[in-house]
Amino acid sequence: MISEAAVADYIAFFENLTPGSLSRFEEVFAPDARFRDPFNDARGVAAVRRVFEKMFDDVDEHSFKVLDHGISGNRAYLNWEFRITPKGKTKVWTIEGMSVIVFRDDGKVEAHIDHYDAASQIYEKIPLVGTVLRGLRRRIAA
């Protein structure tokens, strides 16, 4: 079972993530770690790091805040809010989601799987695509 302290350390790592702290990924993630979200399925710590390098390339501002968490065995479940300002934009996008974090016995992260609604929280903010998706949502809604 993973300790509360290990989960707190992981939360602090992500809440304070900067381009400079990406060098710590090898300390935090297992060599064969997996990161998956609606846009990526990266395997290996170098590939996981590249996902976050690209994120920093694509945003001017960001903040990540864990609102709540739970632990079961070697897994942590994080409820979070991620706020970004895409490059060249002024409006802040807020993304709410959940993550499943799987820890190895040595405390390193084996998997980080993000779950969030990319359609309503990202795609609908993109011109033209957003118009189509909002129309579809209205047609499907009860």
Automatic annotation (TrEMBL):
<feature type="domain" description="SnoaL-like">
    <location>
        <begin position="12"/>
        <end position="111"/>
    </location>
</feature>
<dbReference type="Pfam" id="PF12680">
    <property type="entry name" value="SnoaL_2"/>
</dbReference>
<dbReference type="InterPro" id="IPR032710">
    <property type="entry name" value="NTF2-like_dom_sf"/>
</dbReference>
<protein>
    <submittedName>
        <fullName>Nuclear transport factor 2 family protein</fullName>
    </submittedName>
</protein>
<dbReference type="InterPro" id="IPR037401">
    <property type="entry name" value="SnoaL-like"/>
</dbReference>
